[in-house]
Amino acid sequence: MTHTNKESGAPAQYLTFMLGGESFGIGIMAVKEIIEFGNITEVPMMPESIRGVINLRGAVVPVMDLAARFGRAPSVPGKRTCIVIVELELEGERQVTGIIVDAVSAVLDIPAADIEPAPAFGTRIRGDFIGGMGKVNGKFVILLNVEQVLRLDGLPELAATDLAAA
Question: For 12-160, which CATH superfamily applies?
Fold first, then answer.
């Protein structure tokens, strides 16, 4: 697997997926796995963008509704809806989070030369959520700055919950 390397212009791999009719991508290095949608336990008093938690091999993993996080209506699960499990190192802590997407598309190599900076206007999501715009086959894929998207107060505490107490 390749990793982002702006200096050499080497391609980076991105998992692309659909959400609300738009194509998005996240760096493959952050993606742990993709699982089918389901078995989400709602947790009271969570932000609107957190659908609940899932049990992933004994670990409590919060699940974010990406559409709600972007200020849109919450996702309505369909046949191809799935949960992408993302693992990040945030503030020295390993954070595993699931994100709900409408459908996973493909893993694509996008060379650094084909990535444009995020536009200052014209997108329907916050600018700090966008890492860049990847050009793929004449169309744009919105490359997410997944660290910013997942930065929510309360997620580390939720992930630290012991399943035995549930």
Answer: CheA-289, Domain 4 (2.40.50.180)
- Residue 20 has which token pair? 């609300």
Residue pLDDT, tens place only, 48-68: 899 999 999 999 999 999 999
Contact predicate 108/1, CB 8 Å: no
Contacts of 55 (CB under 8 A, 6+ apart): 39, 41, 61, 163
Exposure string over 86-106, b if 16+ CB within 10 A, otherwise e: beeeeeeeebbbbbbbbebbe
Prediction pTM value: 0.83
Most confident of 2-16, 90-104, 116-130: 90-104
